Amino acid sequence: MKAVILKDKVKMGGKIAPLYYEDVEIPKPGQGEVLIRLRTASLNRRDVFIRYGAYPGIVVPSIPGSDGAGIIEKLGEGVQGLEIGNEVIINPAIGWGDNPSFPSPSFSVLGVPMDGTYAQYIKIPAENVFPKPKHLTWEEAAAIPLGGLTAYRAVVTKGTVKPGDTVIIPGIGGGVATFALQIASAKGAKVFVTSSSDKKIENAIAMGAAGGVNYRSENWVKELKTLSGGADLSIDSIGGDTFNDLIHLAKHGSKIVSFGATLGPVNNLVMPRIFFKQMHIMGTTMGTPDEFADMITLFEDKQLRPVIDKIYPLQDIDEAHRQMDHGNLFGKIVLSIPE
């Protein structure tokens, strides 16, 4: 089969590791596993960060890629409830464990060190395979898993979003942020966004956001406070000074759920602003199998469709990663897998 291979580890802060598009053996499903003929895959920033050496436990050679959708081709011994020919979507959260509050020590994300979805075939534990929503194209199905799961846990499980809540999502445009907007809106919340791009704000409003502000404006925090009335819930992937701005925007008794820190550490944090507002600040990443199932059900019930920015053939993986690393994206980058 054709696959994209990561062969080299690099030190964080150095050059990006190359990828190789090569022929490798088709994997054989073992006990409790299925073999899937992948139709599509999609990119996450995790994939690029791994090439920069920014994740622990990198093992080479490995096939990257966390998101994918395809057709079951073989069943390993002991697999029940699935059939050859089923159209499926993959949950990339491997081995979460029994505690819904946090993952087990053996938890991992699909795609390095476990071979991932940048390939024509993948073997995967049967428990990580779910029916593909019928209303979605192959490209849309592959776009959902990691970003949709992360957003669902942040907004619904940790954020306990309710109809009428005001939700603020800074830095709209990335995959998880756009999923958070869709999920919060589907749950009846009023969503406000920020971006450095007026076009992205317009796109977000077209998706259901109630409004947004350009954070390059000198008084954007005051403007957003006036526009939104303050946040019942903020979904943050930015960190840095933006986290302090979200505290300023927060209502009393509100929540901030954090899943990233693209601006780095939060400096000059004034603790009384948190405890006098009786705030709840929570961290989250990925999610449980039940949350994945509930997320897929929400997409089916509300007929939600992920936003796709670009589609590339698998062999153009270098260009796809360049766009992920440097491009001005709104939504997901998807890979079509050759027959």
From TrEMBL:
InterPro entries: ADH-like_C, ADH-like_N, ER, GroES-like_sf, NAD(P)-bd_dom_sf, Zinc_ADH-like. Pfam families: ADH_N (PF08240), ADH_zinc_N (PF00107). It comes from the Bacteria. Residues 14-335 form the Enoyl reductase (ER) domain. This is Alcohol dehydrogenase. The lineage of its organism: Bacteria, Bacillati, Bacillota, Bacilli, Bacillales.
